[in-house]
Amino acid sequence: MADGADAFCLREVLVAFTACLGEQREVRVDPYLAGWKGLIRFLNTLGTVFSFISKDAVTKIQILENYRNSDQREKYLTVQSMVEYELANGLVDLKKRSEHPDSGCRTFLRLHRALRWLQMFLEGLRTGEEDSKTSVICSEAYNASLANYHPWIIRKAATVAFYVLPTRNTFLENMNVGTADEAVAMLGDALPFICKVYDITEELYAQHKLLDLP
Ligand code: 1PW
C-alpha cells in the first residue's frame, strides 16, 4: 500500500475515535469526522465497488463540516450541543423531510448507524479465525445493523461489494499497523472507545426521541 497523506492507517482512525470522548461524556464532532475521513480513505483502497458506499458517507461528512465552518460552528462542537441547538431552534424535521432536509441531527444519525456496522465488523475481524472470510464477517455485521435502514437495492449492492474483500489476514496487514497480530491487539485497545462513542450517542438520541429521524 502506498505511503503518504492518502495512505490508510488504522491507528489514525482509532486515535480519532478515542479523541472523540470528552471528560463530561460529550462526543466531539471534529475528531468523529476525522475518524470517518480515515475510514473513507480505507474504503477507497478497496476498489471502485466501494466508492458508492463511501460517496454517501463523504456527502454526510461534508454537510457536518459545513456546519463546523459556519457562523454557528460553536453550536456544532459536540453532538450534545448540536442536538440542543437544533431542537431548541426548530431546525430538525421530526416527521418528514421538508424544511430542514440536511439537519445536523439527521445527518449525524446516518453516520452513527454506520458506526455500529463498523464496530461490529472490526469486532468480527478481531475475534475471527485466521482464514475466515472478511466478506462473511462484513455482511454479517451489515445485516445485523445498517441493513435494517437500507432499501433492498442498496442492500443488494452492498452485499455484492463485500465479495471482493480480501481474507482476514491480508486485510489486517493492509491496515498499516504491523503484523496481523499487532492489528488485532490495536483493535482490542481501541474498540471499547468506539463502543462508548456509539453508546453515548445512542442514549442521547433515545432521550430526545431522535432515533427515527426521516
Ligand atoms: C469495510 C467496512 C467499512 C464501513 C464503512 C461504512 C460506510 C457506510 C456507508 C453506507 C452507505 C450505503 C449507500 C447509501 C445509503 C444512504 O441512503 C444511507 N446512508 C447511510 C450512511 O446509511 C441513508 O442516508 P439518507 O438516504 O437517509 O440520506
Shape: globular
Mean pLDDT across the residues is 91
End-to-end span in angstroms? 39 Å
Number of domains: 1
State the gist of this model:
The chain has 214 residues and is mainly α.
Give a verbal description of the structure.
- The structure is a single chain.
- The protein is mainly α.
- The chain has a single domain, classed as Glycolipid transfer protein (Glycolipid transfer protein, GLTP), CATH 1.10.3520.
- It is 63% helix and 0% strand.
- The protein is built from nine helices and no strands.
- Helix 5 (104-127) packs across helix 6 and helix 5 (104-127) packs antiparallel against helix 9.
- The longest helix has 28 residues, at 180-207.
- The model has no long low-confidence stretch (mean pLDDT 91).
- Residues 39, 43, 53, 56-57, 110, 113-114, 117-118, 121, 138, 146, 154 line the site of ligand 1PW.
Write the layout of secondary structure elements.
Elements: H1 10-19, H2 29-45, H3 51-68, H4 79-88, H5 104-127, H6 134-143, H7 152-162, H8 168-173, H9 180-207
Helix pairs in contact: 1-2, 1-9, 2-3, 3-5, 5-6, 5-9
Ligand 1PW is lined by residues 39, 43, 53, 56-57, 110, 113-114, 117-118, 121, 138, 146, 154.
Salient structural properties:
63% helix, binds ligand 1PW, globular, 214 residues, 9 helices, mainly alpha, Glycolipid transfer protein, GLTP
